[in-house]
Design a protein that fits this description.
Radius of gyration: 19 Å
Number of domains: 2
Strand content: 15-25%
Structural class: alpha/beta
Mean pLDDT: 96
Strand order of the largest sheet: 2-1-3-4-5
Low-confidence stretches: none
Helix content: 25-40%
Oligomer: single chain
Largest sheet: 5 strands, parallel
Number of strands: 9
């Protein structure tokens, strides 16, 4: 059994623990009315995009999400929120160092005592969601649940649905497609990006992701027999018929997009196993991207 399989299965438990942290860390997390920039890399960037969409939709304030290497520090933000599982990612630490003096900074990490945790003004630690696999599963989803609970959402429906997603049948052709596309709307766009990233990392397959309404504007050109187009959340009107007309398989998720990530990750592990790959240790990846600094 791979580490990632245990980490996928542990998500309902981790989500329950994450939801409980929302009240404990209320003062450290962005407050209503603050203008917030969320900064991260890889899965952390995807979390930021999800949170930014949810926070603005909930009316809590303007929220932007940036890749750490592309963050802006010349805009009037009231708080910077940094997300990093390891707390050691070079670009994220450099971005934290670049925050103008006097602006509050919050870090969410799985590693207490990491460089990120030691440098941010406020720290939210989710050590129970740390992972042995290089590929992130329970850390990003646990952080998403924590942030959704902080926005006032009841986590219980997510926890119940997560249990069902662990045993739900995989979509037809999910383990035999040659090309995968994930679509989302609103906060589901960031989830779609995370879904595609998991397939690329664990199974080294061709996986893309787009805002659902953008799919007609070019990407549908590669759809055809052997393609699987997976909508995380309700698809736009008539899109399913247009995809099916290409010969591709279309999947409409019955779950919340965050919960559907569990199914996607099960597919990623299944694909990796069928290809003889180790989904815990993908080619060319490390637990944390730590870059050599110039002398």
């Amino acid at each position: 059994m791979f580490h990632i399989e245990e980490e996928i299965a542990s998500q309902p438990r981790c989500w329950a623990q994450a939801a409980e942290l929302a009240g404990r860390y209320a003062d450290a997390l962005p407050r209503s009315g603050e203008r917030v920039a969320v900064v991260g890399c890889g899965s952390a960037l995807n979390i930021g995009q999800v949170y930014a969409a949810l926070r603005e939709t909930a009316g809590y304030g303007e929220t932007d999400a940036f890749s750490a290497s592309e963050a802006h520090f010349d805009r009037p933000y009231d708080r910077y929120l940094f997300i990093s599982r390891s707390g050691t990612t070079t670009e994220t630490l450099e971005a934290l160092d670049a925050v103008p003096p006097g602006i509050p900074t919050t870090a969410i990490t799985a590693r207490q005592g990491s460089p990120l945790a030691n440098s941010a003004k406020d720290v939210v630690t989710v050590e129970f969601a740390d992972e042995l696999s290089i590929v992130q599963t329970r850390f990003p989803t646990s952080v998403m649940v924590l942030l959704r609970a902080h926005l006032g959402e009841d986590p219980d429906p997510l926890l119940a649905a997560a249990e069902r997603a662990l045993v739900a049948p995989l979509p037809e052709h999910a383990l035999s497609a040659r090309q995968y596309t994930f679509l989302g709307r609103g906060a589901g766009v960031g989830v779609a990006h995370e879904a595609a990233l998991k397939l690329r990392e664990s199974a080294q397959v061709w996986a893309e992701s787009y805002p659902a309404m953008e799919y007609r504007h070019g990407p549908i050109a590669v759809a055809g027999p052997g393609s699987l187009v997976w909508s995380l959340g309700p698809p736009p009107d008539r899109l399913a018929a247009e995809v099916l007309a290409t010969g591709a398989t279309f999947v409409a998720s019955p779950f919340d997009p965050l919960v559907e990530l569990i199914v996607v990750r099960r597919v990623a592990v299944g694909l990796a196993r069928s290809l003889g790959l180790d989904p815990d240790s993908p080619h060319h990846l490390r637990y944390s991207v730590v870059l050599a600094r110039d002398a």
